[in-house]
């Protein structure tokens, strides 16, 4: 007791020291639950990674995820209704996720192609890294390219990314080029051999351009250390959006949506926009058909379209 009395007397004689300790305590106390939350989120992600890595896979037996991945092609867009509390990249990344859900996601007003969900993150399906014969049309070689806080611009196998996801909902927006009949009832299994010459050219062009796009952004991300910038860019983009200052600042409102739109433009699917127009794109904009809406939508070039959404993962909204 005498020690604490002496310590209090010392602090009273040194008000600046007392103030510094009070400020330190005020920052340390709320840091405790944040630290505990992050440790728990990281542990859960590692547990999921171990579960996926050690998953028993029976030869010639396909899971639901395998079947869903088979529906995907380069250029498809995948939307995520993420659980911000599961973000293992830190408090800043979780805060950016929460801001995006609060201010960049609209309530369903009948214009969206999906009924439920707050989609504030997205990625684009790109060719994988394998150059083996036949890999161009092998679904197991597909990857998802996305802007992330933990890995920068990441390119991960699509099946693994889907299995690792803890999002409330994951939606696939299949991209169809002119003349293509994806998911047609009378479509043969060997549909790639039944495409017209023009359609095949567009498919090959999409594959080639998205491969270049993938390599360029992975290289630039590593060079610029984008993993350290993503969360702050996301937060600044939302703040600029809610204050209506985004037209005067050269940053995207949603980095993940901006990256996907860049990929669609590079492969010739999306209308070319100036840089500022592209930076104003939100993830929500992919849920509206640009053929019928002029505002808050991603406009594709004539003949290109997003088909009806395919639910890849849907869990409880609680």
TrEMBL record:
This is Uncharacterized protein.
